[in-house]
Design brief:
The protein is α+β, with helices and mostly antiparallel strands. Helix content is about 30%, strand content about 30%. The chain has 6 helices and 9 strands, in the order E-E-H-H-H-E-E-H-E-H-E-E-H-E-E. Strands 1, 2, 3, 4, 5, 6, 7, 8 and 9 form a 9-stranded mixed β-sheet that branches. A hairpin with a 2-residue loop joins strand 8 (about 160-170) and strand 9. Helix 1 (about 20-30) crosses helix 3. The chain is globular and about 50 Å long.
Length: about 180
């Protein structure tokens, strides 16, 4: 899908491919320390990025937003079919469960320079549309969202994610949030 951002920049949104590993590694290395600290589904080293781009984790798939003028990655969003073990256990402690065949776990990342330009919304809407075609009924935030990440919390609220509960991780408050499609 080709679309235009609020700053009139044209971007393409698509699923990742094995050939994207080097560009994704470059994208991840370019994130600020703060952004890196808020995105944690996998390591940022070349081996981990190559591993996931080559689909060696069968339940994972990723989406990229690319700058049409130079091919650079501007945003990366990862989904996992079903729930990751840590999240599933935490939800189960609250007597909440999901059908793994109709649930995905979601970890979005938008490059620092591209935040607040509509890119997250465009990608989110594109991915949700793709997921609904596959019969997905719920999206669980991967590891929740840090309560201190006000921009992300507001993004999720704007996109109708429901607050489930607060939990502590790494001495920080985090929110579990879910979107029902």
């Amino acid at each position: 899908m080709i679309t235009e951002l609020l700053n009139n920049k044209q971007v393409s949104i698509r699923q990742w491919q094995p050939a994207d590993a080097e560009a994704l590694f470059t994208y991840l290395q370019g994130l600020s320390v703060e952004s890196r600290s808020r995105f944690g589904p996998h390591a940022f080293d070349k081996e981990a990025v190559s591993h996931i781009c080559n689909r060696q984790v069968p339940r994972w798939e990723g989406y990229l937003a690319l700058d049409n003028s130079n091919g650079n990655i501007l945003a990366y969003m990862l989904i996992c079919q079903g729930m990751i073990e840590w999240d599933e256990k935490r939800y189960a402690q609250r007597n909440i469960s999901f059908d793994n065949s109709s649930t995905v776990t979601f970890a979005p990342s938008v490059g620092d320079a591209w935040q607040s330009m509509g890119l997250g919304t465009l990608m989110n809407n594109f991915i949700e549309s793709e997921l609904m075609k596959r019969g997905i009924k719920s999206i669980v935030l991967w590891g929740g969202v840090q309560a201190s990440n006000k921009k992300a919390v507001n993004f999720y609220k704007k996109h109708h994610y429901q607050y489930i509960s607060t939990f502590r991780n790494n001495e920080m408050d985090n929110f579990d949030m879910v979107k029902y499609l």
